[in-house]
Amino acid sequence: MLRYAYYHSVGIVVFENLLLVKRRRFTRNSTANRKITRFAKRELIQHGIVMAMKYGFKVYLVDPRGTTHSEEHDEVMRKRGLDKHTASAYLIALKGLKQP
């Protein structure tokens, strides 16, 4: 995806800050805790950032809180005809573009 963005003159890449999402202390389910601890969030974020910087993109990390369960999310889904995951990605990208 980064190669595609590079060849289409993209200058900014926005990632969710996964380190703020689903910490193990927030759930009581042992299966969920195991899955959360086995998912290498830090390595995934670092790899994405390094690869994006190799292509010369500006990289922004955005807190994804408040994007899925909001009135704006429902409005974007209806107005743009997007599914819930794409609408969340759209709102995260908008948040990233509003950063200085």
Key words describing this protein structure:
100 residues, mainly alpha, two-stranded parallel ribbon, 5 helices, 54% helix, globular
What do you see in this structure?
There is one protein chain. The protein has 100 residues and is mostly helical. The chain has one domain (2-98). The chain has five helices and two strands; from the N terminus they run αβααβαα. Helix 4 crosses helix 5. The longest helix has 15 residues, at 84-98. The radius of gyration is 15 Å and the shape is globular.
Annotation, overall tally of beta strands: 2
Average pLDDT value?
84
Radius of gyration from CA coordinates: 15 Å
Element-by-element helix/strand order: HEHHEHH
Low-confidence stretches: none
Largest sheet: 2 strands, parallel
What's the tally of helices?
A: 5
Bulk shape: globular
Helix content: 40-55%
Q: How do the strands of the widest beta sheet line up side by side?
A: 1-2
N-to-C span: 24 Å
The share of residues in extended strands comes to 5-15%
Structural class: mainly alpha
Into how many domains do the coordinates divide? Answer: 1
A few lines on this structure:
This protein is mainly α and 100 residues long.
